[in-house]
Amino acid sequence: MSIYIREFLKPDAKDAAAIWNRVVDDGVAFPQLDTLSTREACKFFEKQDFTGVAFDTDTGEMVGLYILHPNNIGRCGHIANASYAVKSDCRGRHIGEKIVEHSLKKAAELGFKIMQFNAVVAANKPALHLYEKLGFVRLGTVPGGFLMKDGHYEDIVLFYHTL
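Above: the chain sequence. Below: its structure as tokens.
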């Protein structure tokens, strides 16, 4: 499978919302509780510093996306943050790796100096493995920092990567 990643466009909103909302509905990775309508998704993805959408070049199907924005403001505005979503039936095909790599390059292009993740759920072993493989540094763990969909609390791991 060959992947092409480009900037989000309004016509992408329906497919992007479906991928994003599946992760929200799963309740094991994103902090959001509410899903997005197509209209809300369009506004949400357009207001990011960059939203990248990934397509399978063979089928033209959207298979993943990411959002990129500052992690904080002012004197900490040089630190980026990102969230990633891969279509559920396409996971395990290294799409996540491609979109994370793309986001690191895009963050550097936009002038960010660091990428920081504030809340990687400790039970998300594929994400932990991927971030460490790509050179992210584990900063620490917040015990019980994430409320899982089933009601129990899971630890979250903080990471950073110098760009």
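The domain at 3-162 is CATH 3.40.630.30 (Aminopeptidase).
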